[in-house]
Amino acid sequence: MSYLRLLKLLYIADRESLRESGRPIVGTRPVAMDFGPVLSEVLDLVNGQHADEAVWSEFIRKDGYAVALEKDPGVLSLSRHEIERLTKTSEEYRNTDDWEIVKQTHAFEEWKNNITLGTSTPIPLEDMIKAVGRANELEDILQEAEQTTVLRRLLSSVA
After folding, report:
1. Which of 16, 38, 102, 119 is least surrounded, with the fewest CB atoms within 10 Å of its CB?
2. Taking a C-beta distance cutoff of 8 angstroms, is the pair 138, 129 a contact?
3. What residue ranges do the domains of the chain occupy?
4. CA–CA dist 145, 125 (Å, integer)
5. Which one, of 33, 14, 20, lies nearest residue 134 by Cα?
6. How confident is the model at residue 149 (pLDDT cuts 50, 70, 90)?
7. pTM for the full model?
């Protein structure tokens, strides 16, 4: 598939997971770019500009504007909800043109509120939480996200 499609579908799945469960799947920093919102670390992985690019490239190969699965990474670290959300997102957009998906992401409030054309502008998690209708849980979701980030940093320093 095109890497544009991969970036959009992962963003949409992350956003929908946030709507459904109060937690994103990927959980990396979203940014507003000209072609819509993307998860910045996934973009960096696709472009070979991330510290974990060597691990990524064992499983995903970039070929021009496309990405291809080299080896099945498995799903052991994903919850049932995350697997179902990723599958559902893929199925929902199976017959949708990549550029139509881009157009649809341009309707997302968090993108519209943060886009500066020609830049990669961070989208605050608060904006995503509000955009998916969970503003009443804002503080709880932000606190859980911070705890998860701290735990990931701790675990990566131990490894």
Report:
1. 119
2. yes
3. 3-158
4. 9
5. 20
6. low
7. 0.89
